[in-house]
């Protein structure tokens, strides 16, 4: 879906105000580390954007990525990851959040639809994230992963090529 306005980099503090300004539009939220942007991410985000009018991407901060993925991650710093994502045609806004889980991001944004990759299901969503969605009766859509493409596979391939 083509973007109708300039994409924005948001903070947790400005997220609710952004949502209020766009109250007439169907907002889709997704989140992740997006540690090394690849074609699987692009296809996922393009599909997620089709569930509404505006796609907002929550990005884990560098510290939360280290907690989730280990001390060698992230590969790309959070400001660069956010800038890359906001440059995609299908993304309306990006917000870096400091927590490991997207719970506070979801509470501040109050999306109309939440989207996750096919490696998740309702049963495997973090309970606090699922509780936010259930309280608001926000539907959760799952987009299939691109076979054979992942950040972990890319990192492993790059490391195996090091001298």
Helix and strand sequence = EHEHEHHEHEHEH
Strand content: 15-25%
- The total domain count is 1
Please give the CATH class.
Alpha Beta
Q: C-alpha Rg, in Å? A: 15 Å
CATH architectural arrangement: 3-Layer(aba) Sandwich
- Biggest sheet, spatial arrangement of strands: 1-4-3-2-5-6
Major sheet: size, sense and barrel closure? 6 strands, parallel
* Helical residues, percent: 25-40%
Shape: globular
Q: Looking at the chains present, what oligomeric state does this protein adopt?
A: single chain
How does this model look, in words?
The protein is built from seven helices and six strands; from the N terminus they run E-H-E-H-E-H-H-E-H-E-H-E-H. It has 163 residues and is α/β, with parallel strands linked by helices. It has one domain (1-115): 3-Layer(aba) Sandwich (Rossmann fold), CATH 3.40.50. It has a six-stranded parallel sheet with strand order 1-4-3-2-5-6, with helices on both faces. The longest helix has 11 residues, at 39-49. It is globular, with a radius of gyration of 15 Å. 33% of the residues are buried.
